[in-house]
Amino acid sequence: MRLCTWNVNGLESLFRKGYFADFVYRTSPDILCLQETKISRRKLAQWSISTRDWNCFLSICKTNEGYSGVSTFCQSHCPLLKAEEGISGFLPAECLAWNPSRSWFCNQREIPIWRETAYSVGYHFETTENSELLTKLDKEGRCVIVEFPFFILFNVYVPFDSSDETFEYKYIFIERLLKRIKMVLEGGKNVVVCGDFNCARERIDHCDPEGIFQNKPRGSLFESDSCRQLFNVICSSEGPLVDVFRYFHPERLDAYTCWNNQTGARKTNFGTRIDYILANRAFVENFITNCDIFNDIYGSDHCPVYIEFRSIVSLSAESLHVERLPPFCCQHFPDLLGSQQSLKDMMKISIHDKSNKIVEMRPHFVEATAFNRTCITMKSDTSTSEEGHSQEGKYDDTIRLPTKRNFEKSTSIEMDTFSNREYSSTVSGSENCFHVTKYQKAKEDWRKLFHNLQKVPLCSGHNEPCLLRTVKKKGANLGRKFYVCGRPIGKGVEGRCNFFLWYDNRDTRS
């Protein structure tokens, strides 16, 4: 059996561009854990997250639509017992109140919290804990827990620390996760934890541990990060869990799972390993046979990580005395009732959408339509009858960029240039006037903007054109522009050189 984890950085984009289909066909996972799905509740039915051949457990961010979110997919042949949302148990179990007409849903007037239901995994914190803060953490959609017969799976997305406030937020999340893991282990259960921890454990897992390329303040040692220290408490030789990848590949270098897309760092493999699969040592030694990284799978700024474990004896729901799937399963969502489809159908839709993407028009065609003040009449879907006469299709009442297929089938594009005035186009026998003078104005504005700009300098290291960037960090230089080497960040001669030059605004046209 195979378990995969992947920070997809937007599940909708992954489906639309066809990357998800390629991923599933190549990896064939039995259990799939995704982070940063960014799914909103109103789009659940559109993407049909609930499928007939997979059971899905989804946690959606409840405070910011389209942010964060994790989901765990299990093939229908994988027996499971319970499932709950969040690491604290204090999060309201809203799914239990979605369909109270079913006898096996909770019929309480008020929505119970997970620790009060019979469907929770258990091993929760004491009620004296800061329930308000923990509930706030869980409302961001950062954890899904699923209990299988032989282990309990935590799918987590640890907060990113971009400031002192979010750093404390991240520390508390890791601290509470560690505490919950210890309680599960003390209960005699095996534990598997996977997801994006937004933290590299050791120097070997980071391309720039000294912070030279990231301009970190001197004296801030890699090991001094308190979140990293806490994370290593989980995975130390005396800790409760094992970093499964390092268990099988203790000395592998340049094994990264995340790269900066803005700097093109994946081309030079200048990244970090922040996506992990952790498990207690007994489970690793007795069941797990391999762990590795799919660094050639694209679609996100992360790549998938997987483990393979020995086939555990297949158990039926009847032998486990499980009457039905937990109510947290997406197939019970009222938003999705009647819309379930197979995962293969979802991938076909994904591939179809990818093949029908609108292609970019050639530069001369764009210039003619946008800036040369022309009127375009497109004869689309032109075909020839058996008698040899051309049969013209009806004109559309809107001007659209053609798809690749229709662009090739179009037999003529008539462009009539008029004088400087308003233009009209006859569409389907009726006159539909539209103004094109604004395109001419836009062209003139762009011409003025780029007429006398500062000449792009060449970097000193490679003698190649530089890139113009803008300072986004708060401070005296916020918003100021500068030139840097155009190559992606990385080590050696193939990486970006140290060239730097401030952009001189005085050279621009006033």
TrEMBL record:
Active site: 157, 196, 302
Positions of the record's site feature: Interaction with DNA substrate: 302
Example of a GO MF term: zinc ion binding
Biological processes annotated in GO: base-excision repair
Domain GRF-type: 459-506
InterPro entries, per the entry: AP_endonuc_1 (IPR004808), AP_endonuclease_F1_BS (IPR020847), Endo/exonu/phosph_ase_sf (IPR036691), Endo/exonuclease/phosphatase (IPR005135), Znf_GRF (IPR010666)
Binding note for cofactor: Probably binds two magnesium or manganese ions per subunit.
Keywords, sorted A to Z: DNA damage, DNA repair, Endonuclease, Hydrolase, Lyase, Magnesium, Manganese, Metal-binding, Nuclease, Nucleus, Zinc, Zinc-finger
Residues that coordinate or bind Mg(2+): 7, 36, 196, 198, 301-302
PANTHER family: AP ENDONUCLEASE, DNA-(APURINIC OR APYRIMIDINIC SITE) ENDONUCLEASE 2
Protein's UniProt name: DNA-(apurinic or apyrimidinic site) endonuclease
